[in-house]
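Researcher: Let's run the pair from yesterday's discussion. Sequence first, then tokens, for each.
Model: Starting with the first of the pair.
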Amino acid sequence: MSFGRFRGIRLCGNWAWSLTLVALLIPAIVIAAEPKARSQAEKEEPAGPNEKPILGLWQIDTLSLSSGENIRERVEDQKKAYNAQINSDVLMLRVGKTVFGELKYDLHTNSRPWTIDVSSKDGKMLGICEHDGNQLKIALNDADKSRSSDFRNDKNDLVLLLSRPRTMSILVLDADGRNLRHLPNFDGTTIGSPEWSHDGQRLAFDGWRPALGENNRDSHIFICNVDGSGLKDLGPGCMPSWSPDDKRLTYVQYFGQDHVWIRDVDGANPELICSDAWCSQWSPVRNEIAYTKFRDNLYVYNADTKQTRELLHGQYVAVHWGMSWSPDGKWICFRGRRPDGRAETVAVHAEGDEKGFKVLIPTDAMPDIKAAGMTSSWGGNGNQIVATIIRKSQPVPKPYIFDFTGKAPPMPFPGFPADWLSGDIAWSSDGKRIAITGQRVEGEKSAAATGGSAS
């Protein structure tokens, strides 16, 4: 039986396990940036309600096998992206995106534990499989031996311990905290920068797959329907933002440095706005795009006249990503860092700081505030700004509502589950719904504690 060749080294042959995992322990292979949307072979195959629950992407926590000399070899190096992609009848073992083993399998779920038969052109293995939520165990023996009966490393030829990648996903809920819904996980993709289309029917966001060794600079842009259906990969880029008519997107793409682009939603008519720029956001009411340049100032680009105006005059040494326009298009909210190190969330008038400038979330905005997130979103009743806050009394990031007029005190966003941390945030254009990226936190209270109900 052969797992195939990895860098020209045959990992095992005829289940004799004659070679060790030295081939796996070489430095991780650098994968070149993908110039287009991911190929069909790379796209995930998530499990539907009536399909095998083990389908999709898994990270390999431990791979243990025995060599012909009964020497155990184990892989537990978390710095390398060991993973398994399980499709309807094929199990692929990979380092990053490089396949080192491709096995056909048959899974039988009418017994406990499940039984699994694995085969390739070189032979067969017989084993058992146990699935428990986000954990998966597989034990296999050469077909010449008896089928595996437990998951002990010293009793089986191959033992795989796998877990679902922990990633950020999208939660959608009403402005009053009701109707909490979790969008599908999209099989190991960490999601950021959600943005509503102005008609409220679609979400755009960026995502990458840490289990494959990717980071945020490998991000692709995706769009989907609000219920998570109709997912489309639009190719490399991050931080998408819709034009007022929902026909175009502005986004950032990495080419050694950051570039701001605009393009049609279908990918046509790409246009470079500015090099060495970051975090572009389209005005909700005008054909204007705000972005940061040199990471310490804000600019607004008029897509009709091709003119650009500067908004700030040296107040900040850093302007962070995650800015948002006010619903009327008159103000821009962002997080900035002063020369003395103080960070604050502020609003600047879209015509420049001489027309208006207001600190919304100072360092001491709340008695025990520890930090505020980089992203914010302006919406609700028109004066509400939602930002992620970390408090000393509650170190898990949570969304809070701040009032632009200063007439109302900061309040936790209603209905956000207590056992989740919050990340990037986006109001819908009508102010009735919000999308928040988040992740469940082990050991926290249940979602019901805040009145939310996960679906």
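Model: Moving on to the second of the pair.
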Amino acid sequence: MNVMKRIVSAAAAAAVCCTFATGAFAEKFVEAPASNPADKALADEYRALFSYEEITAEGYSVTLPYRLYVPEDYDPNYAYPVVLFLHGAGESGGDNEKQLNVGMMTPFFEEGFYKKFPCIIVAAQVPNEPTGTTGEWVNVSWKSGSYEIKDMDETGPTFTEEIQLAKKAVEKTAEDYNVDASRIYVTGISMGGYGTWNIITHYSDYFAAAMPICGAGDPSKAEYLMNMPIWCFHGDEDTAVPVSGSRDMYNAITELGGTKINYTEWTGTGHAWLPAYYREDVWQWLFSQSKETVDVSPVSDMVEKLKGTDTSGMTEEDRQKFEYALNFADMVINGSVHTSALVDKAMSLLNEAETMAAAGENQSSVWMIVGISAGAAVIIAAVAVVTAVAVRRRKKAAGAGE
């Protein structure tokens, strides 16, 4: 690959990275899934990495079981992001096992994403009702799609104890381990997709990003989700949860001017979630989201310093790198979410650009000196020629006089 192709490829990659990192896209993609494999239970070697936990609180009638994954090489000096996973209806119960069989777990571990994106995972399980009926994250009809949250603060069908305890399980984890409070995420499938929309609506300031899959929410509460990065997914032939559930939420948020939601609708696809969980770029997007507040003024100051730089003395490769650094920095400055990693990357590129600018100026000075020297040499040579001619003429005139 030549220099130009390398630089263009790097710039394109940076553009994608920054778009994902800021969450500012508001795109709807209608596409066939790359693959749609069947769910399979998490392998025993990975299942053994999850501890058995449960949580309740004063005034609650429910005890919520959950499984907790903490990296084997957990470093207390490193702040880990947390992923809360909300399962579907088929995994409700009290065994604290079934929620590991369906959804994100097998792709995340078997594809090695758990190594690429070190994190803590909270996989909660809705216990069944005392009557034996299936417990739910949100007690509404799944066949109806979108629904209404009548009272945001009142515990009930649309703000269940189970949803509240799922958040408390994450809070308990943050007390016991070093957690990055700016990178707490939630994802869920089917009934858990309902739960994901519900929990981020009630706790919009708590989560950094969400991935609800084949779920539904309350479009009238879209204002609570205007500033949250969301990537939702749904199959257009879903007969279990109508695709209108995801369409309604996407439309409601974007109609209010929201720019941080992305929606992928799979064509010819029913009730599915694995096409999302097997995609590395989806996980890359999720883990790049952050509520972290970082000062980008050093980047802005450096950009202002470098703008207008004369790049004529640079090599073509250095000139392209210089322009790439400025473009990358502009994307970081204009992003709606700023992470220290992005700022550090921008400053590294800009410092390198400053070095190239100085080298280019030195090279220009050298050529200027060379040019001046060459010009002077030409003048001296011309004067010498003129002088020699004049001398010959004088000698010739003197000879004629004799």
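Researcher: Give me one sentence on the second I can quote.
Model: Residues 340-401 form the longest helix (62 residues).
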